[in-house]
Amino acid sequence: MEKKPHFVRREFPPREVSSVSLAFLLAAVLLLNALLYLYVNKFYIASGRAETDPGLCPFGYFKLGAVKNCSPWLSCEAINREVRKLKCVGEGAVKKVFLSEWKENKVVLSQLTNSELKEDFLHGLKMLKALQSKHVVRLLGYCVQQFTILTEYHPLGSLRGLNETLHIPKYKGMNTWHRRLMLAIDYVSVIRYLHSSPLGTLVMCDSNDLDKVLSQYLLTSDFHILVNDLDALPLVNRSAGRLVKCGHRELRGEFVAPEQRWPYGEEVPFEDDLMPPYDEKTDIWKIPDVSNFFLGHVEGSDIVRLHLFDIHAACKKKDPAERPSAQEVLDTYRKVLTLLIREAAMPGTREML
């Protein structure tokens, strides 16, 4: 009788990861974390977004383009003699804006158009002079007698045109969740700067709707944000019991904070004298709506929104005292950016370990 061959099943011992391999893996993870730290830091320091901008000149001076030396702010005489208007590029309630040229550099010349609003114009100039920093458009000169202000030109214009800019072939590579979150971080950085400025706590009052907010900021060619319009920046002084009101008219809509709306109902006609004042937490209320615009609808933006859900819910607290500070919002945004970059770079690390 023919015997059937017997197949013996061999048992293999479980594969063990050697201590050398594990140590190598851990070292690689630590190295990658260090590289990620340096990568994120690049945006806050190397790219000129650090708290102190080494490119800034002393007070009363400016640098433009590739020029290494600082020049004094242009006087009335210098503006009249050296600046040439090219065309009108905008007009608001307070001023008319001209694209102009100075020594082969494109610049922006703003001129008062309504003499009744000269106090607003001069307040904007005062703020522009006092707040010169990496967050604020660069002042090049001014003439109080002629109510003119000269500032740096940024060809991408205001944030109103952000989405259109990101659809230009040259900038399509910027249309990512990462770059859009960086813009939101820039925006919150400006708010944080205004709330802790050298002049004290300033409130961004020209912000009654999203379009108005976006019109106050410029997009630079290297995709950072600068505040451009400082005509309406009242000062909060808690120690002196000084709060603010943004204008003398009734504000409506969900975009403005609850404390900015008329609190006595439709049956009581609005009176400015009866309207309670408020503080800088009105700016915090608006951050989620502005950031939602920045994030857009690109791949990954919903994941960013999910990570920002808690801090945005805190920003929308009805009681202003319960809302976070701009610094707390900024810290959270930066943590989320670091976390998401790490997850994108090491999606399988946790499983490997």
TrEMBL record:
One of its GO terms (biological process) is protein O-linked glycosylation. It comes from the Eukaryota. It is an enzyme of class 2 (transferase). It is a single-pass type II membrane protein. PROSITE patterns: PROTEIN_KINASE_DOM (PS50011). The keyword ATP-binding applies. The chain crosses the membrane at residues 20-40. One of its GO terms (molecular function) is ATP binding. Keywords: ATP-binding, Endoplasmic reticulum, Kinase, Membrane, Nucleotide-binding, Signal-anchor, Transferase, Transmembrane, Transmembrane helix. Protein O-mannose kinase that specifically mediates phosphorylation at the 6-position of an O-mannose of the trisaccharide (N-acetylgalactosamine (GalNAc)-beta-1,3-N-acetylglucosamine (GlcNAc)-beta-1,4-mannose) to generate phosphorylated O-mannosyl trisaccharide (N-acetylgalactosamine-beta-1,3-N-acetylglucosamine-beta-1,4-(phosphate-6-)mannose). Phosphorylated O-mannosyl trisaccharide is a carbohydrate structure present in alpha-dystroglycan (DAG1), which is required for binding laminin G-like domain-containing extracellular proteins with high affinity. This is Protein O-mannose kinase. It comes from Pygoscelis adeliae. The lineage of its organism: Eukaryota, Metazoa, Chordata, Craniata, Vertebrata.
